[in-house]
Amino acid sequence: MTKFGYKKSNSDQSLFLKRQDDHITCLIIYVDDMIITGDDKEEIQTLKEQLSREYEMKDFGQLKYFLGIEVLRSKGGIFIYQRKYILDLLAAIGMIDCKPTETPIIANHGLQMIKGQKLADRGQYQRVVGKLIYLSHTRPNIAYAVGVVSRFMHQP
């Protein structure tokens, strides 16, 4: 990407950025999928052409779904959500019929480690917490609760 004038982001090794004048073009890569976006339509088209000369690619048009995140466009803007991701997670942990709540944990919850208590399945616990961390990107209302349960990752 550097030969095309892009710089790797300091915050994400799979994100490449190119700034020209008042415009920006972004490319994010995950394994064999990529998203190209920005406000410079000419640069986006040029990048697509450059990449297609180097690699076999398909352009699927407007982004609709990527890594469990659904994208909806309307006159009000672009909205991202993870409905399918949530339903799959609830099904996987046997909670598909659970009732929704506005706040998933109360403040001053009092959760703590108690010696001698039977531990939960560590692998399953870590997988679920990892999925909840990813979910908090589109559901910031669960961030506090996810932070609390992630404290018990090594001894759930």
Description of the molecule:
The model has no long low-confidence stretch (mean pLDDT 89). The protein contains 4 helices and 7 strands, in the order E-E-E-E-H-E-E-E-H-H-H. A hairpin with a 6-residue loop joins strand 1 (7-8) and strand 2 (15-20). It is of the alpha+beta class and 156 residues long. Helix 3 (122-135) packs antiparallel against helix 4. The chain has 2 domains: 2-61, no CATH class; 81-150, no CATH class. The longest helix is centred in the first third of the chain and has 14 residues, at 41-54. The radius of gyration is 20 Å and the shape is elongated. It starts with 6 loop residues before the first strand and ends in a 6-residue tail after the last helix. It is 29% helix and 22% strand. The strands form 2 sheets. A 4-stranded antiparallel β-sheet has the order 1-2-3-4, with helices on one face. Strands 5-6-7 form a 3-stranded antiparallel β-sheet.
Q: What can be said about this structure in brief?
A:
This protein is an alpha+beta fold and 156 residues long. The protein is built from four helices and seven strands; from the N terminus they run E-E-E-E-H-E-E-E-H-H-H.
